[in-house]
Amino acid sequence: MGAYILRRLLLVLPTLFGVMLINFALTQFVPGGPIDQIQARLQGEGDAIQALGGTGDATSGPGEEQGYVGARGLPPEFLAKLEVQFGFARIVCDEGFTGTPSINAPECRKEQIPATERFLIMMGNYLTFDFGESYFRSISVVDLVLEKMPVSITLGLWSTLIAYLISIPLGIRKAVRDGSSFDTWTSGIIIAAYAIPGFLFAILLMVVFAGGSYLQWFPLRGLTSEGWETFPWYQKVTDYLWHIVLPVTAQLISAFATLTLLTKNSFLDEIKKHYVMTARAKGLSEARVLYGHVFRNAMLIVIAGFPGLFLGIFFGSSLIIEFIFSLDGLGQLGYRSAVERDYPVIFGTLFAFGLIGLIVGILSDLMYVLVDPRIDFERRD
After folding, report:
1. Which of 83, 103, 127 is the last residue of a domain?
2. What is the dihedral of CA 82, 86, 89, 91, to 10 degrees?
3. Residue 170 near residue 284 (C-beta atoms within 8 A)
4. Are residues 62 and 201 in the same domain?
């Protein structure tokens, strides 16, 4: 097992490097960079994509250095400083220059940094966990992610725990009573729940339970009420739980359906095996057979998949659900960063979450071995 883990660990960096390289290359062909975003904001156009439609300076000659297509209405010195600040260019001064390098110094000039060099510089910083600072928020990427993390922790952790607490007993019950009326009508509910889009279910919950047209049992927005910091600890807990009921329910619906059917099918496969028939022939009670013999083998794939399921819900929190319930989490952060072309946030979070995902994949394999020591990933037929 040690050799297998070592091989997986050695593949982490090449895999991460490939993921980063592909995404970095794609951004080189996407119109509307961060400087275009600033240009659009200063000109009151709202978005750089609109600025690319031909709002640049019509008097610009073919010999002028234009840099970004949308960045033609600002002074060249200002644009040059932005490019240097954002890491797209650097200031190079003549040999023997003793002053402070400046774009305004006659002995200095701006030099574009090639994309390959920018990528290598970025990866070198990321390997030391230096993710830089957001272009538009004047805050480090790490602090920005930590600021949005409570929402993702809430949606991911509670959705995963509740899904397991409900789906495992329900899946076992459905497997034991396979083909009965209970199995039939619960399967219908599960399939219908899986077919309902999460955002539509979130709107339904809001309309019915959050003061839309019927009941006003739950709050509409946020994780806590105003003045939450001043509440006693028990009121803080109840207020927090009160706020998360609707968004967690909306986030839970698809994971609940998938996990229930997975549990049922796993138990059905094990119940039909010979060792179960042997255990019953020895006179063991049905509960002893089910939970003493079948459970461990049937739950192998379900328990071992916990890290992956949690990671998927944790980092894949629904942008639309966050928007509906006014939750400022990683989903909205990723969307705004992509729209604004905030590259430090995009690539910093991609690197960090990609690294976590690869490590969690290794942990999932270890979970398989812990649940069933008979599994040996080092053996090959």
Report:
1. 127
2. 70
3. no
4. no
